[in-house]
Amino acid sequence: MVERVGAIRKTAAHLFRRHPEIAREVTSAYERRRRAAARRDKARKAAEAGQANGKPVEANGKPAAAPAPAAPAPTTP
């Protein structure tokens, strides 16, 4: 029974992927909370790892991009 309900929810989520308000009604609130918690934990661990390595980390948990050079390098003819 659990497998069938899971399959139906997965199919409905795919069918209504462009209509998030409908997809939210057919998906499991428990699963949505579990996935959100996993994303938060992953971002937190990435931020902690970045700080431990001395690398700057953005708020979304991704490494900060290297700054662009202030002036272009001179070209020699």
SSE layout:
Elements: H1 2-15, H2 20-26, H3 29-52
Helix pairs in contact: 1-2
Description:
There is one protein chain. The protein has 77 residues and is mainly α. The protein contains three helices and no strands. It is elongated. The protein starts with a helix and ends in a 25-residue tail after the last helix.
Could you give a short description of this structure?
With about 80 residues, the chain is mainly α. The chain has helices at about 1-15, 20-25, 30-50.
Q: Features of this protein?
A:
single chain, 77 residues, mainly alpha, 3 helices
How much is the radius of gyration in Å?
22 Å
Number of strands: 0
Distance from first to last alpha carbon: 75 Å
Shape: elongated
Secondary structure class reads mainly alpha
Helix content: 55-70%
What's the pLDDT, averaged over the residues?
A: 78
Instruction: List the total number of helices.
Output: 3
Strand content: under 5%
Listing every helix as H and every strand as E from the N terminus to the C terminus, the arrangement reads HHH
Task: Describe the sheet with the most strands.
Answer: none
List low-pLDDT spans.
none
